[in-house]
Specification:
With about 375 residues, the protein is mainly α. It folds into three domains: about 70 residues, 434 Repressor (Amino-terminal Domain) (Orthogonal Bundle), CATH 1.10.260; about 240 residues, no CATH class; about 35 residues, no CATH class. Strands 1-3-2-4 form a four-stranded mixed beta sheet, sandwiched between helices. Strand 2 and strand 3 form a beta hairpin.
């Protein structure tokens, strides 16, 4: 790509539009308010944010002064996202190879969206809000109330966070990665699929918080330690915020209280009770334990006692086989492509924009079998 001072005008206008919209939304002001503040029309502001116009130097200077930014901020191209990630300290070669696969996934996903014309608008950006309130607001916006979220991965995909679940070597100390492509306005999360399905749900909700609040902070690599109470304070404060958001988003305290008041004879919860609630909400045992402790259904001593237990053998004895996806994750590959990506690939194939071979790779099914099912 050309140097920053020689960027093609189309890319430059896209960068300017993205950053202008971001700054406006983070201040919580409308296009009309911004237009009045800088002496431009709201229609022109709209065209700038869409990347369809370039402002004069005078207008650009007015915008830069309004947001207290240097003019170059609205025109300068950032360093390529994956270059930053792959430079991370201590990244071993196997993890590097998996991240390169993630990069290819992002590129192919965005290409399929372009082929089908199905790019999703990014979700809202939150600022100056508590994690609990932000979680409640997102649940209200999505219409969930206090009910459990049964398929968080599909839900987050529909709300603009593209997800790939892929195994990452344990030595890499990576539970998840969040990235945001500024010009394309597309967000992606890589979830380590070697974790249990409940832990993957927690990681996904955690990355969703980064999407709602930290998308402009650059790529974020999350270490497994951020999910441990004793260690999370050692990391950037956004990690504690995201953890609080994730648990509240997945497990609404009002619903927990309703279930316990309605169905449990005692407020002294056994480990079997904890696992029953964990399965109901589709979360990790640790996330459920934390919530019950915070709601004072578990004492500190009981929390510490149950925290030391491995839930898998208990869960199999109490409730039968492990969840289907927990069995699948123990397989050789453990890669879970999103259902939306597969749907986009089918549409692109039906429109004759990708080959049967490529569709076969996306669906992980034999090409001839796909053709026979589709009658093509």
């Amino acid at each position: 790509m050309a140097k920053n001072n020689h960027l093609p005008e189309q890319i430059m206008s896209a960068i300017l539009g993205t950053r202008l919209r971001r700054e406006r939304e983070e201040l919580g002001i409308t296009q009309d308010a911004l237009a009045k503040g800088v002496g431009l029309s709201s229609e022109f502001i709209s065209l700038l944010e869409l990347g369809k116009r370039m402002p004069s130097l005078e207008s650009l200077t007015a915008l830069a002064e309004y947001f207290r930014k240097d003019v170059s901020y609205f025109l300068k191209e950032k360093e390529e996202t994956f270059k930053i990630i792959l430079r991370a300290e201590g990244l071993e070669e196997k993890a590097r190879a998996e991240i390169k696969k993630f990069k290819k996934y992002c590129e192919e996903y965005m290409h399929l969206e372009d082929l089908t014309g199905r790019r999703l608008e990014p979700g809202p950006i939150y600022a100056y809000i508590s994690p609990e309130r932000m979680a409640d607001e997102e649940r209200r916006r999505m219409g969930f109330g206090d009910e459990p979220i049964r398929d968080i991965f599909s839900l987050l995909e529909l709300n603009g966070l593209h997800i790939l679940r892929q195994p990452i070597p344990e030595k890499s100390n990576i539970s998840g990665i969040f990235i945001f492509f500024e010009v394309e306005r597309a967000a992606f999360a890589l979830i380590n699929s070697t974790q249990t399905i409940g832990q993957q749900a927690l990681i996904a909700a955690h990355e969703y918080c980064h999407y709602l609040k930290d998308r402009n902070a650059g790529p974020i690599i999350d270490n497994p330690d951020i999910f441990i109470d004793e260690y999370v304070s050692l990391y950037h404060p956004r990690e504690k915020f995201a953890q609080t958001f994730a648990v509240r988003f997945l497990i609404h305290p009002i619903k927990v209280k309703k279930i316990i008041d309605k169905d449990f004879h005692s407020k002294r919860l056994s480990f079997a009770d904890v696992l029953y609630l964990k399965r109901y909400f589709g979360v990790s045992a640790l996330a459920m334990l934390r919530t019950l402790k915070d709601l004072e259904y578990l004492s500190r001593s009981k929390f510490e006692e149950y925290q030391k237990l491995d839930p898998s053998p208990y869960e199999e004895v109490f409730f039968g086989k492990l969840a289907e996806e927990d069995r699948l994750r123990k397989g050789a590959k453990g890669v879970v492509l999103s259902s939306r990506l597969k749907n986009l690939a089918l549409e692109a194939y039906n429109k004759k924009k990708i080959s049967a071979e490529k569709l076969s790779r996306f669906l992980k099914r034999d090409k001839n079998k796909i053709k026979s099912v589709l009658g093509k």
